[in-house]
Amino acid sequence: MTAVPLADRTVVVSAIRQGSGVLLTDRLVLTCAHVVKSGSVLVAHPARPDRIRAMVTWIDYGLDVALLEAVEPVLRAPMVRLGVLETREAIPGCEITGFPEVQRYGPDRRLEADQYTATALPLAGEVRDLLVCDLDGSPAARPDHEPPALSGLSGGPVFVGDVLLGVARQVPRQRGGRRVECVPLEPVLAAEPFVRACRKAGVELRHEGVHGHFPRDQRYEADYAQALGVA
Fold first, then answer.
1. Is the pTM above the cut of 0.90?
2. Domain 6-205 belongs in CATH node 3.40.50.300
3. pLDDT score of 10
4. What residues have CB less than 8 Å from 162, skipping those under 6 apart?
5. Domain boundary assignment for the chain
């Protein structure tokens, strides 16, 4: 199965509220627990005209994360690369994608994906077991009576290079809208019920440590070095 662009892994998740999610495989979606809670869930992708039913196969309200399994493939996609931060240094060049409220167009207020560049700040979320990111620019300001500009981004993926680090959870107050608190993958991958749910879906999880900026061509460079006999 060929690789898919990272942005194509981002989906809309509709349940008790509208949020975002990331395709781990063609059918497994990781999102935030507060987006789905329980009941019916629908997953949508810009490449498809229809919405696909999905069920919650694992949920952890403490971590605020949930795993969904769609009844059919959402998109042809191999297993995403999973990463766990193993550094306390800031990591620039991260990307957060999703379907926030502010990113709508046309008379029918149709959703469109949005994309933000950010720096991961491991120390800023260390005590609370969060992945904290600072956006490179502030989102558009909105009147106080309207939902926050990034409402709907919850569950959207955080990538560095082509490695998934976690999913966006919330935008805290008093940070000018630039800070995004995210659920890191480390506690998710350590949750045995999550591992069992993935295994039941035919997925054996593997992850890699992330020590700094992770260029998309890392594997190519490693293979090239090995071919030259220097790795």
1. no
2. no
3. 96
4. 3, 6, 81, 214, 216
5. 6-205
